[in-house]
Amino acid sequence: xxxxxxxxxxxxxxxxxxxxxxxxxxxxxxxxxxxxxxxxxxxxxxxxxxxxxxxxxxxxxxxxxxxxxxxxxxxxxxxxxxxxxxxxxxxxxxxxxxxxxxxxxxxxxxxxxxxxxxxxxxxxxxxxxxxxxxxxxxxxxxxxxxxxxxxxxxxxxxxxxxxxxxxxxxxxxxxxxxxxxxxxxxxxxxxxxxxxxxxxxxxxxxxxxxxxxxxxxxxxxxxxxxxxxxxxxxxxxxxxxxxxxxxxxxxxxxxxxxxxxxxxxxxxxxxxxxxxxxxxxxxxxxxxxxxxxxxxxxxxxxxxxxxxxxxxxxx
Amino acid sequence: xxxxxxxxxxxxxxxxxxxxxxxxxxxxxxxxxxxxxxxxxxxxxxxxxxxxxxxxxxxxxxxxxxxxxxxxxxxxxxxxxxxxxxxxxxxxxxxxxxxxxxxxxxxxxxxxxxxxxxxxxxxxxxxxxxxxxxxxxxxxxxxxxxxxxxxxxxxxxxxxxxxxxxxxxxxxxxxxxxxxxxxxxxxxxxxxxxxxxxxxxxxxxxxxxxxxxxxxxxxxxxxxxxxxxxxxxxxxxxxxxxxxxxxxxxxxxxxxxxxxxxxxxxxxxxxxxxxxxxxxxxxxxxxxxxxxxxxxxxxxxxxxxxxxxxxxxxxxxxxxxxxxxxxxxxxxxxxxxxxxxxxxxxxxxxxxxxxxxxxxxxxxxxxxxxxxxxxxxxxxxxxxxxxxxxxxxxxxxxxxxxxxxxxxxxxxxxxxxxxxxxxxxxxxxxxxxxxxxxxxx
Amino acid sequence: xxxxxxxxxxxxxxxxxxxxxxxxxxxxxxxxxxxxxxxxxxxxxxxxxxxxxxxxxxxxxxxxxxxxxxxxxxxxxxxxxxxxxxxxxxxxxxxxxxxxxxxxxxxxxxxxxxxxxxxxxxxxxxxxxxxxxxxxxxxxxxxxxxxxxxxxxxxxxxxxxxxxxxxxxxxxxx
Lengths: 315, 441, 174
What we know:
The complex is a heterotrimer of chains A (315), B (441) and C (174). With 441 residues, chain B is mainly alpha-helical. Chain B is 66% helix and 0% strand.
């Protein structure tokens, strides 16, 4: 007979299992269905129209009440700025939710400009990696962030395939993530376009329903063969993004990552998350079985000598 | 303490003094020495000088971090959010702390009570490793005072980190319970100890479940960033298995390493049972570690084959990967094989230290070095290094504090072994039901 | 014969002749210059020299598509707009909305019986139409070449007297 009576064993195992079950199992998102936001809005960015005036940066700065920039917004020498020993151009920071960069391409006589900001993905990696649920994808399509619950683990920055979220490391008391929120609180929630779209003088940015924008983008490609690359960046990348791009030159020339997977990032972890409840269910019986199989009739060590002395008579 | 041993003074190892009176808590804390004796042995110990220097430099830097924020002490950037605190403090310390569930399983589940002399050390190693991983986390978090949020305030259950948080918190409770038996012996609460022991199997099974999942989950965290980690260190379907399987030799080798340090620097605290069995147990642990290592090697190769990444081995990063595999896996395998076969404990110990270095290298490679391999390389700030070393020093100091006092390396007795008393100790003290017979009785 | 006609008839004939010459002017009220300031806020209104552009472009449809009755230069448009009728809507703002992203405008994009869904708003139309030609003909392409900034504009762009101090403008190289 085992040194532990059946009653005591059950009590102990149940206590242990209860402790484990109290930890909520992770639910894999019911993703894969990208039609989840039929009325989701989006923005179509036509890089053949952008002239690099940086009015969008200025509009964002004003709308989101960001600190004053280091350079005026009509200072175009910023396009020559590089970082990390010339390997990087400007990127969104805690003080600038969007930036415009200038690129040279062999396929264009004129420089090409690109506006960078959060792409408001359909299945955002930041949202799925956040363990306090600080991110929300609203039905209008905006991916917004709640700084009141953010613990600062910065997993979202690891997960974002576009390297978008910035963090206010300079603050010791309230460091939070800083990124474009699609002007949700002040505009998109009320059906108005974000500030950058409204200010753009050449209408390089078009605001509308994502589904409609895809149609418009395809029409533009069809209507002007040779003017555009036959691809809408953001249509499928990491499950599709709300901000879509058309370009006249190859997307790699303009700094886009064209190696991204087409499925949402969360698909990578779904298999592991599905394993979790299996382990929770199988391990108890498996290891209890091992225990019973390997310890029957054997000595029970020094820890429980007292117990053995008491139960030595029971067989 | 060797100095004191020469004077015939034995460290505290029982609940009663030689004159029959009970030790009180303060006396227990001071190892049964007088204040003079304690302070003079403390100062004589040169290791304390090293710790002192580290603390004098490091603790102000830690305070500086909390006053001026992460930006002041790290090179954390928008592209590189994680640095040494998580890369070393969390991702390295957790697999090395897998010893708890490994030895607990061996003893409680599989009934291998021959491992008992080293079981408590392994459990303590696990507890302290996880505890200090959480300390490193608290230093790294932007708002550490909100650490409890995912537990009871705001849930993000789809996130792998959510699982890690809950499991580590639960597992810490399990480990505290498992180590508490030695604490209850030491403090003199035998009924509390019995209560815990009743649930030992349940606790151990919970420990296995939780460890499997969160060791794997730490690997799954990196699967959120497919393009950012070099393909040789990344595997979408197998990352969690790589991390879980490598934690097995990690935990076992850490026990070998710590027991080596212990036997060489504080053998006065180890009882005969521990000293006599250590070599044999070290070799047994080595067997377990080498089985884990060969399995790990195979699944790493399977992952490379699965994604057909062989061509990467011809690149610079590939050479680095081959170095990590050779130094961290292949070399220890040979050392273990030879050492186990020829019963050379020294070789087995060497293999254990090399394995630990290999696991540390693997985690640092995944989290820091090959992270963002397509971008510029980021180098940790010197303050990050100082803080990491300081917290590790606090970990060692805490480890030693507990090992000096609690019956981890020695068995607790009701009465001290008195060289003049030939009889075995009296049985029947009403409060101490557990009678640990003196060695040899 | 003219000398023998009475001066009444000469006068009427002269008047009729002038009227004939003035006919085109009555048919269309072509302004010499246009004040484009409907969207003026960050920039001042534009003093648009219409007459100069008429002389340069010669063909009204270069800017006004097909609305002036002179036909259209774009073969794609001519598939539908193939009459030489003058439209009631000639000015840009008659078709290009000042607020192209209003709820109604976005709703209209979903209309399946509407051909022109991808239409520029007024601001985009101005800039696209003007700058397209200016780039080809070496016209002004800078923002302030056509319209000077207002005080509000200077503040908006953090430029001019609202520019940040020079110390923070140092080139950024980490």
